[in-house]
Amino acid sequence: MKILIIEDEKALRETLVSSLQKEQYVVEVADTILVAEEKIALYDYDCILLDIMLPDGSGLDLLEKLKQLGKSENVIIISAKNALDDKLKGLELGADDYLTKPFHIAELNARIKAVLRRKNLDGKNSIDIGNVVFDITERTLTVASQNIHLNRKEFDILNYFLLNKNRLITKTALAEYVWGDQVDQADNFDFIYYQIKNLRKKLQDAQADIAIESVYGVGYKLVAL
């Protein structure tokens, strides 16, 4: 899962990054509206944490742009301002939730997981296809009731494929989703090939009712068998 934190307060931003990375999320940050707009134009995020008071403007203005792009439903507003008008305007603009500073990290984690369930899983915790049960919250994969061990990247890759079943996934899109900003440092995408190779073998050995197919020269596609 990929999260964007739009927050100009450095100490809080670093605390959020550290905490969310421990939850196995891919985390990217922006400290201004301009930087946030650049990232949102390039990447898709499962959840966006948005501060209202930013150095170059109001986060609500950015939220309005996100609504026009159809990307506001996965936004959680985080702000020191507890004014009812700001809350109502944020929710009217499509924000999923509103959290007032200071807040407990545990509460933020719970809000994020709720957003992800509503956005990707229609309120459920898992994706079920045939004999496959992929639990987002517990980060587990079972095939025919047998637990299949996945490393962190294998889990994130399979999660992305399951959310985009039967769609062509390019290597670039997959790399950006799973590795975030770090992918810019890569010379090639060989690391994706090896992760998918291992993931495929685990699915085949377990006789899963899903498979990852290669689309020559472009990327991959997950299909039900």
TrEMBL record:
Presence of the UniProt keyword Protease in the record: no
Chain ranges of the OmpR/PhoB-type domain: 124-224
A Pfam family annotated for this UniProt entry: Trans_reg_C
Annotated InterPro entries: CheY-like_superfamily, OmpR/PhoB-type_DNA-bd, Sig_transdc_resp-reg_receiver, WalR-like, WH-like_DNA-bd_sf
Residues in Response regulatory domain copies: 2-116
Residue numbers carrying 4-aspartylphosphate: D51
Keywords recorded for this protein, A-Z: DNA-binding, Phosphoprotein, Transcription, Transcription regulation, Two-component regulatory system
Origin: domain of life: Bacteria
PROSITE patterns: OMPR_PHOB, RESPONSE_REGULATORY
Record keyword DNA damage present: no
DNA-binding region: 124-224
Name assigned to this protein: Response regulator transcription factor
Provenance organism: Bizionia sediminis
